[in-house]
Specification:
It contains 1 helix and 37 strands. By secondary structure, it is mainly β.
């Protein structure tokens, strides 16, 4: 081998040694890996992905959105949102996890998570989320369904309002069921003894379902699945049950009721039985009547200490009881503190598990409520103050928000307001005035979704003894 050949051989060998050294130091870029040898993945680029929302989605203002993500080869992550009103998604976040955000304005939003690791950084952004206007803000047409005056006794001042779930006895599925707080002979508050029904069409004529002294001072109604009607008879100190055929019974006679003011029916979560939740006494207690069909199997006072005072025309007591079966939550409208309270996992609350700490203010709101007791952590004030004025009625919207009506027991700046309240963010949008007449016209509220998926709100208007419908 000549000198020239030897020199070329040496150069080739040297070049191979250099290339081998470079490869051993992790100089390759394949697959995003910067590591070699036994630590081949120690410098891999982080990868991030969102599993929820899985695609473009839309919610109503007031609803929450769950963000769920995971990452690989990351040691730290930082969150950000496309707008300041998208809900709180900022700062340091775990490398895998989930949070619930509550947008505070309409529009569109995306959420981004950027994660870093020894191999660099990676990020992911959710699909577009559209935040539509709140439900109440889209409803602008009011239609009068019909009079609530009993066709025989002529009692009026409608308080309780419910919707018949099925066709049975005297009622047709979808009928509006109303009880009257005043009697016909003297028009005295608290002496009403009648329940009437109306088909849910404009110009409907009321038909009598029941009349009994056991219904005296009927303040609220709750429908059971078989069309039985449970009534809070404030003046009779009873909680009668009216069959679909209009027969008044008293299956809860063993319980003590003193000025029962509000109630709601609750389908049992999971394998638990159904129940009636009721403000059993004017002293501010909330009770659970556990049911086996239409028969009581147990009674438990689950909370006490709400303000309870006053007489017909000026009652301060827990009202507007509303149950959300999707989250096993009971909502209570507290007339005295001008607030709305949520009892989460209400089916698990034991005897006097929640003690409400407040006082009765009468002409002024009570101090902000606080809670004690073994289940105190399950009680929360979700809205208070603002234009709430002795709120008295409530119902559940299809997106999980509440509508709440003022009782106007004190001098309001604007009468007869209806509010939308989100359990997540409180007041949503501006309230709607449903009646410009005398204050305190709004009591019973009921909601449904029509065959086209549109939200409908029914409400009693005491100023003209009618049921009205609010829709798009």
């Amino acid at each position: 081998m000549n000198t020239r050949t030897n020199a070329m051989h040496a150069k080739i060998v040297g070049l191979l040694v250099i290339l081998s050294g470079v490869a051993g130091c992790g100089g390759g870029y394949g697959g995003g890996s910067y590591g070699g040898g036994s630590g081949g993945n120690s410098y891999t680029m982080p990868m991030v992905s969102f599993s929820t929302p899985a695609s473009a989605t839309a919610i109503n203002l007031g609803q929450t959105l769950k963000l769920t993500w995971s990452s690989t080869y990351a040691t730290a992550c930082t969150a950000s949102a496309s707008t300041a009103t998208a809900g709180t998604f900022t700062g340091s976040q775990p490398t895998s996890g989930s949070v619930t955000v509550a947008p505070t304005a309409t529009g569109t939003a995306t959420y981004t998570l950027t994660c870093t690791g020894t191999g660099g950084s990676g990020s992911a952004t959710t699909a577009m989320v559209t935040i539509n206007p709140s439900i109440l803000s889209t409803l602008a047409t009011t239609t009068t369904i019909g009079s609530t005056l009993d066709p025989i006794e002529h009692g009026g001042n409608p308080y309780g309002l419910a919707i018949a779930p099925i066709t049975a006895g005297l009622m047709t599925a979808g009928d509006l069921i109303v009880c009257n707080f005043n009697d016909g002979a003297t028009n005295t508050q608290g002496l009403g003894t009648t329940i009437v029904g109306l088909h849910p069409t404009a110009g409907a004529t009321p038909y009598r379902i029941a009349q009994s002294s056991q219904l005296q001072g009927c303040a609220t109604l709750a429908m059971l699945p078989d069309d039985s009607i449970s009534a809070s008879a404030f003046s009779a100190n009873l909680n009668p049950l009216v069959t679909a055929a209009g027969v008044v019974t008293n299956p809860f006679a063993a319980d003590t009721f003193t000025g029962p003011w509000s109630q709601t029916y609750a389908t049992g979560p999971a394998a638990l039985p159904s129940a009636l939740y009721t403000s059993v006494e004017l002293n501010g207690a909330i009770g659970r009547i556990t049911l086996n069909g239409d028969v009581q199997s147990a009674f438990t006072e689950i909370a006490k200490g709400f303000c309870g005072t006053g007489a017909p025309g000026g009652v301060f007591a827990p009202a507007g009881l509303t149950y959300d079966p999707s989250i096993d939550t009971l909502y209570i409208v507290d007339t005295s503190s001008y607030s709305v309270v949520a009892f989460s996992a209400v089916s698990t609350i034991g005897a006097d598990g929640i003690i409400v700490n407040g006082s009765c203010g009468g002409s002024t709101p009570t101090p902000a409520l606080t809670f004690s007791g073994t289940n105190a952590s399950q009680a929360k004030v979700i809205a208070s103050g603002g234009q709430l004025n002795s709120p008295i009625s409530a119902a559940l919207l299809t997106d999980g928000d509440l509508i709440v009506g003022n009782g106007d027991l004190n001098s309001p700046a604007v009468t007869n307001l209806l509010f939308e309240i989100s359990p997540a963010i409180g007041f949503v949008g501006a309230p709607v005035q449903l009646d410009t007449g005398a204050p305190g016209a709004l009591f019973g509220l009921a909601t449904k979704v029509d065959s086209s998926g549109n939200q409908i709100i029914y409400f009693n208007d005491d100023n003209d003894n009618t049921v009205k419908m609010l829709a798009k």
